[in-house]
Amino acid sequence: MERIERIHALHRILSAARYPVTVQRLMEELECSRATVYRDLAYLRDYLMAPVVGNGEAGFRYDPNEAQRFELPGLWLTSEELYSLLAAQQLLVRSGGGVLSSALAPLQQRIEKLLDQHAGGRRVPVERVRVVPHRTRRLDEAAFRVVATAVLDRRQLTFEYRARSTDEKTRRTVSPQRLVHYRDNWYLDAWDHDRDALRSFSVDRVGNARVLEEAARDVPDDELDRQLSSSYGIFSGPPKGWATIVFSAKAARWVADEHWHSQQQGRFLPDGRYELKVPFSNGRELLMDVMHYGGDAEIVDPPVLREQARALLALALSNYERG
Questions:
Q1: Which one, out of 54, 118, 156, 285, has a CA that is 20 to 30 A from the CA of 174?
Q2: For the segment 8-36, what is each residue's pLDDT rounded down to a tens digit?
Q3: What residues does the WCX domain cover (predicted)?
């Protein structure tokens, strides 16, 4: 039994006891040694300020005049839960491009303090939890905070947006719906009032953001998912069809365990290859991911997507044929 579990059990025993509880009984119920019982009693009394009274001969109990007012303070987690929470916190800090570091610093300090208490003074090697961001874009922390505030306060947001595809800058007024962390980068799903439609924006392309007083228009979750999450990729839109990709037997060992889309369909073929089907609207992102597998992937259907892949491969090959 871990120390935190013993403290909880000890608290329950003493809270329910009408008469002093002997050390022998505590040893049996807590499944620990006499020395551990005394250490836990001292921790409960001196550190948690519990109204423990008694001695080793007569036994221990809570002072009847104080017992009703005492509760275990703070957040109590097992070591495993704390380690998991610390790992999740490290993931948020490091995969968010550092934008959440300052906001989560107090939480990290609190977690580390609780871990130190559990470890009995032994240092917890936080650096052993390693998160390696991949192709993370630079993100303006001030802009991120404004966007997040608008999302959570349910207020409209205005900002300048420079589209990555055209490099054109426009002023947008939106009702923010949700923040999405996708492939190490942040996106904003929002109702665009100027275009009267749902849109997704890369937060790293947002500038001069300002929260407005007007309340945000709320779009139902099922409509958000239908318009923005029903097809492959972050800028998906309603699906226009299904793509069928066949992977080599070697690549199948990886692809079969990968999540490409919530509605994906996959099966192993008799020769060991793997067939994957996903709904798509804009094929650009899907093509990039298929190209990642090189000769181990082949787009079988639809013909238009297959031809686009052929054109991309021909263009790439031409770069190596010059000179």
A1: 285
A2: 889 989 998 889 999 999 999 998 999 99
A3: 241-314
